[in-house]
Every structure is written in structure tokens, then in C-alpha cells.
């Protein structure tokens, strides 16, 4: 959410940013209605002052025995006009607020303008594995080992759900524990958060109102299943003022994630590539505005270290404006190479939101250097399904098994091979 005065001062920039992020909000209508609302409020203030002055004059005239009927008639006309203006201003305020909530964050000035084709590969790490045999896609490999079941979840839940068995399920649990242990050792505070949140919490991080149709909602309780732990963790400090000396605050959290939208029809629907329910470990930073650019670099590096220690080749991609999320000002995607599907798979999006989320959730800071809204950042470190895909496909063996990355073996009682 952007400051309203700021929006009025940089209308051309905001209009260009809405177009660059390919958002559908009617920004011209926002400015037109906001101008009408402010004009109505200003006129109402003038009329209220006139009513107040007239009331005093009428009171004084009555005490002096003077004629007051014409003045009373005039005051009634002004009062009716004032009542109508207040009603109109309230109606306009509701319309403006609906549009206001749909205005996206502005991309950083150096973010490339355009769609996915304008994304920039910032750096790559690791060598792509050259397997001395035809690489199997993870769904075939998992089915042959009897560890990835596609039929049972389809019978109980439909498409977009998974069931891992045996050592593959243990591998996921090992990854979760290792991710959390690694982040705690790096200074993150681990938190266990609610998986159901209020509409206000979803509005605070920017999922609502834009993504309402993509969320799972419990209508009776008016609660939403979280699409990511970002929502819960960011709202830990909702409507709070943090001491400058306590910044930065860094949290890590594991959660299931629920998303009604699971990709375009027919695209990447096999195996674990796109799911309605999946597991993820999330990192969230609250930082001083002066330090958020460096915080994004640190956050990205913390996610990268996991891929490096797993020895999975990956690349870091700076997203172009049209590929940014609604709330993000800047984002680095981490994409891991998976030879079985022959694709770069996104396993993390590390984003800086500036004070956009903090304004929506009313998260402030104050201290010796001033006061204001904090800057928030978050990133997956990491999302589990595609990391599992990458391990299965990069570590598959010629005899149809899966080698366990060395860093995970202590979490699996020394297991060196799955299958």
C-alpha cells in the first residue's frame, strides 16, 4: 500500500508502474474519484464552518430580540447540502478504498520493464549433471520405486495433490528439519504459526483483494488457509511499533501452503511440479528502510547456501516488472536445474516489499534516527516439492535408485540410497 499523498504527487510514475506490472486496476478512475472525494470533503468543511457561524449569529440575534427566520431557513438549506456532501464523500471513500487496495507496489527503478522474457539471469552456480544414461522424470522414477503415488491422492482429493511413501516421505521430513536447523544456526528465530488467518492478515501482505479467487476460504469462520507462511509471520507484528534497536528481526517458519490456483490447465501438472497443497520453509525479515537492499542480498544468499550444500546447480534470476508479484518491488528467483524434466524449476522467490506491506499491516519503527514504516522481505528457503524433484532427478542412479545428498544423511540415520 502506497501513501495517498505520495500517489497524488507521482501520478505519472504510478500510472506507468501499473502498466509495467501488468495490473488491471483502473488507475485513472482512482485519481478521478479521489479528486471528487477530496473536493466534496473540502466543500463540506466550508459548509460546516458556515453552519457553525450561522448558529452563533442566530443565537445572538434571538437574545437581542431580532428576526431570525431568514437566517434559520438559510441554515437549513446549508445543512441539507452538507448532509448530502457527507453522504457522497462516504460513498466515494468506499469506492476509492476498493481501488486503492488494488494499486500494486512500484517496481524498483532498475528492475527491467517487460514480461518474463525480460527477466535477467544474474548468476549461475554449479555444473549441470551429465548423466551417463537417459534421465527419468521424477514421476516415472518415483512410480518405479513405489514411493510416489499419483492414484491415491487423486481418489481422495482430486488433481494437484501428492502422496509420498517410505524413504521419499522421510527425505521430505529430513529436508524440513535441515532447512530449519540451518536457518536457526544463521541467527533466524524459528516460529510455529497459525495456518488459518483473517482477511485482514491476507490484506496486510497483499494476497487480498487481488488473489481472493486463488485462496482457500473457510466461509463459516471467515478465515483463509495460508498460501505461504509469509502471511502469518509478517502479521506477527501487525499494528505494532518496533524499536529501531531491535531491527532487523529475522524469522524462519515451516508450514503447509494451500493454493487453489495450481498453474495453467495442462501445464506442468504431472508429478510434484504444481500442487494445491505443499510444504515450504519461509524466511521473513523486518528491517530499517536504509538496509533493505542489503537485506535482500543476504536473504537470497541464505536460500542459495541450501542449494549449494545440496550440490544442486541453480541460477539467480532478477524478475522483470511484469513478472513481479503484486506487492514486490524487487525479486530474485532461484531456479534449480532438473535433468529429468529438462527444466529450470523455481524453488524460491526472494522479494523486497519496501514499506508496502508494513503500511497495509501498520508495522512501524521508531528510534534515535527517526520513525516510520519498516521494510519487509521474504523468501522460500526452500519450497519442498521442486527441491525433492531436483534431488530425485539429479541424484538418480543407473540402476533406478536415488543417492541421498551427503548433507541429509545424518537426518536419515545414515541412509545413502533410496530404493
Task: Describe it.
With 419 residues, the protein is α+β, with helices and mostly antiparallel strands. It is 40% helix and 21% strand. The chain has 12 helices and 18 strands. It has helices at residues 4-9, 11-20, 27-63, 69-100, 138-145, 151-156, 166-185, 199-205, 229-234, 292-309, 356-361, 384-394, and strands spanning 120-125, 148-149, 163-164, 189-190, 196-197, 217-218, 223-225, 240-243, 249-258, 277-287, 314-318, 330-338, 343-352, 363-367, 370-373, 375-383, 402-403, 417-418. The strands form 5 sheets. It has an 8-stranded mixed β-sheet with strand order 1-11-12-13-16-10-9-4. It has a 3-stranded antiparallel β-sheet with strand order 5-7-6. Helix 3 runs antiparallel to helix 4. It is elongated. The protein starts with a helix and ends with a strand.
Q: What is shown here, in short?
A:
The protein is α+β, with helices and mostly antiparallel strands and 419 residues long. It has twelve helices and 18 strands.
> What profile does the largest beta sheet have?
8 strands, mixed
Number of strands: 18
Strand content: 15-25%
| Class by alpha and beta content | alpha+beta
Number of helices: 12
Q: What integer value in Å does the Rg equal?
A: 27 Å
The geometry reads as: elongated
Low-confidence stretches: none
The first-to-last residue Cα distance is 50 Å
Features:
single chain; 419 residues; alpha+beta; eight-stranded mixed β-sheet; three-stranded antiparallel β-sheet; 18 strands; elongated
Sequence-ordered SSE layout with sheet pairings:
Blueprint: H1 4-9, H2 11-20, H3 27-63, H4 69-100, E1 120-125, H5 138-145, E2 148-149, H6 151-156, E3 163-164, H7 166-185, E4 189-190, E5 196-197, H8 199-205, E6 217-218, E7 223-225, H9 229-234, E8 240-243, E9 249-258, E10 277-287, H10 292-309, E11 314-318, E12 330-338, E13 343-352, H11 356-361, E14 363-367, E15 370-373, E16 375-383, H12 384-394, E17 402-403, E18 417-418
Parallel strand pairs: 4-9, 8-14
Antiparallel strand pairs: 1-11, 2-3, 5-7, 6-7, 9-10, 10-16, 11-12, 12-13, 13-16, 14-15, 17-18
Helix pairs in contact: 3-4
Amino acid at each position: 500500500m502506497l501513501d495517498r499523498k505520495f500517489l497524488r504527487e507521482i501520478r505519472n510514475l504510478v500510472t506507468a508502474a501499473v502498466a509495467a506490472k501488468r495490473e488491471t486496476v483502473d488507475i485513472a478512475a482512482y485519481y478521478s474519484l479521489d479528486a471528487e472525494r477530496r473536493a466534496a470533503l473540502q466543500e463540506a468543511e466550508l459548509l460546516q464552518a458556515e453552519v457553525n457561524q450561522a448558529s452563533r449569529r442566530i443565537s445572538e440575534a434571538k437574545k437581542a430580540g431580532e428576526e431570525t427566520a431568514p437566517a434559520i431557513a438559510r441554515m437549513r438549506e446549508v445543512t441539507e447540502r452538507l448532509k448530502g456532501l457527507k453522504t457522497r464523500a462516504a460513498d466515494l471513500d468506499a469506492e476509492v478504498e476498493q481501488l486503492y487496495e488494488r494499486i500494486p507496489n512500484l517496481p524498483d527503478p532498475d528492475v527491467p520493464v517487460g514480461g518474463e522474457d525480460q527477466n535477467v539471469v544474474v548468476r549461475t552456480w554449479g555444473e549441470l549433471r551429465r548423466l551417463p544414461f537417459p534421465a527419468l522424470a521424477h514421476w516415472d522414477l518415483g512410480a518405479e520405486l513405489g514411493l510416489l503415488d499419483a492414484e491415491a491422492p487423486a481418489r481422495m482429493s482430486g488433481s494437484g495433490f501428492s502422496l509420498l511413501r517410505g524413504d521419499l516421505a522421510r527425505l521430505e521430513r529430513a529436508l524440513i528439519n535441515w532447512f530449519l536447523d540451518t536457518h536457526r544456526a544463521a541467527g533466524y528465530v524459528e516460529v510455529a504459526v497459525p495456518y488459518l488467518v483473517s482477511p485482514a492478515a491476507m490484506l496486510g501482505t497483499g494476497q487480498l483483494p487481488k488473489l481472493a479467487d486463488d485462496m482457500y476460504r473457510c466461509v463459516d469462520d471467515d478465515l483463509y488457509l495460508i498460501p505461504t507462511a509469509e502471511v502469518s509471520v509478517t502479521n506477527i507484528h501487525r499494528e505494532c511499533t518496533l524499536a529501531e534497536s531491535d531491527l532487523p528481526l529475522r524469522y524462519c517458519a515451516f508450514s503447509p501452503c494451500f493454493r487453489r490456483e495450481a498453474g495453467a490447465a495442462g501445464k506442468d501438472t504431472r508429478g510434484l511440479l504444481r500442487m494445491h497443497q505443499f510444504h515450504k520453509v519461509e524466511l521473513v525479515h523486518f528491517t530499517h528502510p536504509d538496509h533493505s537492499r542489503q537485506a535482500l542480498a543476504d536473504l537470497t544468499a541464505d536460500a542459495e547456501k541450501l542449494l549449494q550444500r545440496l550440490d544442486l546447480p541453480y541460477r539467480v534470476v532478477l524478475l522483470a516488472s511484469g513478472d513481479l508479484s503484486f506487492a514486490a518491488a524487487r525479486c530474485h528467483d532461484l531456479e534449480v536445474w532438473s535433468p529429468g524434466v529438462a527444466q529450470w524449476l523455481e524453488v524460491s522467490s526472494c522479494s523486497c516489499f519496501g514499506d508496502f506491506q508494513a503500511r497495509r499491516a501498520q508495522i512501524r519503527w521508531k528510534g534515535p534516527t527517526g520513525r516510520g514504516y519498516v521494510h519487509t522481505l521474504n523468501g522460500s528457503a526452500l519450497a519442498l516439492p521442486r527441491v525433492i524433484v531436483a534431488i530425485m532427478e539429479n541424484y538418480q542412479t543407473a540402476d533406478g535408485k536415488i543417492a541421498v545428498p551427503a548433507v541429509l544423511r545424518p537426518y536419515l540415520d545414515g541412509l545413502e540410497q533410496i530404493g
